[in-house]
Design goal:
The chain has about 375 residues and is of the alpha/beta class. The chain is built from 13 helices and eight strands. The protein has an eight-stranded mixed beta sheet with strand order 1-2-4-3-5-6-7-8, sandwiched between helices. Helix 2 packs across helix 3, helix 2 runs parallel beside helix 10 and helix 3 crosses helix 10. The longest helix is centred in the first third of the chain and has 43 residues. The N and C termini lie far apart (about 145 Å). This is Lysophosphatidylserine lipase ABHD12.
């Protein structure tokens, strides 16, 4: 009997030892299960390795996606040349935003009138006419007819052709109008078809025709007053197109001023900052430059200057990040050796990098009034001769 009780007691103790630890009220083990040291170390190493692998996997997927986009863009541009045309014109970029182009006085131009001209059916261009500062008091509250008549006063006129993006109300453009007005010039600036509040679709031919229409409109009202053409950036392409056409019909302007010009649109596109990531891409010209030509966009300044017969002034900042300085210098060298300029002054004015004028701040130069006075004074003398 004693042996039986002893065996029962032993079996009970064994069962108690083999039973799991009792649960507390929260249904958790009272005693935590501990892994052997070697197993714990292995589990601890797996966690960071897993995280690293997941991060590398996501990074690799992102790189593959970016590479796919990088390769797809050239084919997309080639198949849709209109994309490249949009990037050349950038007329959909309206900076500054939320300005009323009908109210130039909101931009500090209290002696400016807003017009609308119609170069051809279905096309309307918005124009700002800023009178010389000397006429500021007389201009206050006057209507369009008074401003048109004022073009016949004894003050020279500058037709300003702006570059891509923005409108005639762009900040740096407005500041240039003020400088020129203070020097005694009428300034007529307009938005090409498709820019600002002008109606129509942009094209090189259309932009040139708009400029021709505005020039003829000025000449019909300015009498014998000198009329100069000033083009900036992409506007230099419009300017040389216009002046070449005017020279061919024997009605040249009194002078041409090119600010930050390029040689032709292909060389400019190849040198533009946007093209850096694709400049060494196989077939770059075929993918990116040929579609520009296919769209009818050339802006061949280097060819146009060979047919221009009027004084030429080129202004270019050495630190220009958009149109490289060497393109402006190259255009000057072409013009200076052209037979069409043999009886006219051709001048190149560089602005040192330290001045920080970059692509659109040459108007800040304190030397600009003297440069224009000396150059345009000589041009007026040549005109009267």
């Amino acid at each position: 009997m004693r042996k039986r009780n002893e065996s029962v007691t032993v079996e009970h103790e064994r069962a108690a030892a083999a039973a799991p630890a009792p649960l507390d009220k929260g249904c958790s083990l009272r005693h935590s299960l501990r892994l052997p040291p070697a197993a714990a170390a292995a589990a601890g190493m797996k966690r960071p390795l897993g995280r690293r692998y997941g991060l590398w996997f996501r990074l690799r997927r992102l790189l593959i996606w970016l590479l796919g986009v990088y390769i797809a863009i050239p084919f997309l541009v080639k198949l849709c040349p209109a994309i490249q045309a949009k990037l050349v014109f950038l007329n959909f970029v309206r900076v500054p935003y939320f300005i009323d182009l009908k109210r130039p006085q909101d931009q500090g131009l209290n002696h400016t009138c807003n017009y609308y001209l119609q170069p051809e059916e279905g096309v309307t261009v918005g124009v700002w006419h800023t009178v010389p500062a000397a006429l500021w008091k007389n201009a206050r509250g006057k209507d369009q007819l008074w401003f048109e008549d004022a073009l016949g006063s004894s003050h020279p006129v500058i037709l300003y052709l702006h570059g891509n993006a923005g409108t005639r109300g762009g900040d740096h453009r407005v500041e240039l109008y003020k400088v020129l007005s203070s020097l005694g010039y009428h300034v007529v600036a307009f938005d090409y078809r498709g820019w600002g509040d002008s109606i129509g679709s942009p094209s090189e031919r259309g932009m040139t025709y708009d400029a021709l229409h505005v020039f003829d409109w000025i000449k019909a009202r300015s009498g014998d007053n000198p009329v100069y053409i000033w083009g900036h950036s992409l506007g230099t392409g419009v300017a040389t197109n216009l002046v070449r056409r005017l020279c061919e019909r024997e009605t040249p302007p009194d002078a041409l001023i090119l600010e930050s010009p390029f040689t032709n649109i292909r060389e400019e596109a190849r040198s533009h900052p946007f093209s850096v990531i694709y400049r060494y891409f196989p077939g770059f010209d075929w993918f990116f430059l040929d579609p520009i030509t296919t769209s009818g966009i050339k802006f061949a300044n280097d060819e146009n200057v060979k047919y221009i017969s009027c004084s030429l002034l080129i202004l270019h900042a050495e630190d220009d990040p958009v149109v490289p300085f060497h393109l402006g210098k190259k255009l000057y060298n072409i013009a200076a050796t052209s037979r069409s300029f043999r009886d006219y002054k051709v001048q190149f004015i560089p602005f040192h990098t330290d001045l920080g004028y970059r692509h659109k701040y040459i108007y800040r130069s304190p030397e600009l009034p003297r440069i224009l006075r000396e150059f345009l004074g000589k041009s007026e003398h040549e005109h009267h001769q």
